Every structure is written in structure tokens, then in C-alpha cells.
């Protein structure tokens, strides 16, 4: 079994070695992965904007601002790549206008716990989509993009998990004790 650093090094070496070769067009799966991820991240930004409009917590606002920056950098990079490759960009929902969180009724307003867990769920979905895109990639350039996106999500996820643990917001499934174990 190879280590992750060796795999990353081999990918970078392949990218450097293949700079003189003509690029083949993206295959339909690579194009579809790009389109799906861009749509997902654009919708993720809308959720984050809703979170910013409903929270009053400074740590949650900072976390939302950070994740919006990650999403916007992914959108910019992937949109540019898709335009270069001739892949049509998806139609996405418009940005949410700013609103005063005190004017939102309590039954409609997201709690800070709901915001953080929603972000965690969306982060998992984005990470899974990046991993799938990377495994589907035949071209090295798109494979490197997926790897970069995945690593950015992993880094942000560590920060989010710290905040959620601090606040007691992590959803933990019930523990499993096999039959006959001393704890059952």
C-alpha cells in the first residue's frame, strides 16, 4: 500500500511530465462531475448566505465567511476551467439579499446548531463529490483540481469540527456494543 504523499508526488510528477503532450477532450463523466460540483457549490453559497442572515453569533459568522471564501474560490477556478473546455455553466440561484436577523420569525430562523450541522452535511457532500471527480478523472489537470478542492475541504472540516465540538453540536450516532461484550 502506498502512502498518500507518494501518490500526490506521482500525480504532480505526471502533471509536470505531460506538459508537452496535447490534452485530450474531457470525457462525459469528467464534464458531468464539473457541472454537478459547480451547481452544488453555488447552492451551498446560498445556504451560507441564509446562515449569515439568520445568525447573531460572531464565531458562526466567521465560519460562514470562511466557507463562503472556499466556495467562491472553487466556483471561480472551476468556472474558468469549464469555459476553457467549452462546458456550459449551470443556471444557479441568485445571491440572497442581506437581511436583519432580528426581523426573521423564530419558526423560520435557523438556529446556530442547524447552521453548523447544515454546513457539515454540505461539506461532506462536497468532499465526496471531489473524491468521485478525482477518481473519475483521466486527465491529470482536472484530477489535480479535484485533489486541491478536496484538501481545502479537509482543512476547513477540521476547523468546523473544532467549533462544533466546543459547542456540543456534533451529532453522534448511538454506540454499538457487540452481543456478549462487557458493555452490553
In short:
The protein is 66% helix and 0% strand. It has 184 residues and is an all-alpha fold. The protein has one domain: Ferritin, core subunit, four-helix bundle (Ferritin, Up-down Bundle), CATH 1.20.1260.10.
Mean residue pLDDT: 89
Q: CATH homologous superfamily name?
A: Ferritin, core subunit, four-helix bundle
Q: Class by helix and strand content? A: mainly alpha
Shape: globular
Q: What low-confidence regions span 5 or more consecutive residues with pLDDT below 50? A: none
Describe the largest sheet: none
What is the CATH class designation?
A: Mainly Alpha
Distance between the termini: 36 Å
Rg, Å, rounded: 20 Å
Written overview of the protein:
- This protein is mainly alpha-helical and about 180 residues long.
- It has one domain (about 25-165): Ferritin, core subunit, four-helix bundle (Ferritin, Up-down Bundle), CATH 1.20.1260.
- It is built from 5 helices and no strands.
- It has helices spanning about 5-15, 30-55, 60-85, 110-135, 140-165.
- Helix 1 packs antiparallel against helix 5 (about 140-165), helix 2 (about 30-55) runs antiparallel to helix 3 (about 60-85) and helix 4 (about 110-135) packs antiparallel against helix 5 (about 140-165).
- It is globular and about 55 Å long.
- The relative contact order is 0.15.
- The model has no long low-confidence stretch (mean pLDDT about 90).
Secondary structure topology:
Elements: H1 4-17, H2 28-54, H3 58-85, H4 112-136, H5 140-167
Helix pairs in contact: 1-5, 2-3, 2-4, 3-5, 4-5
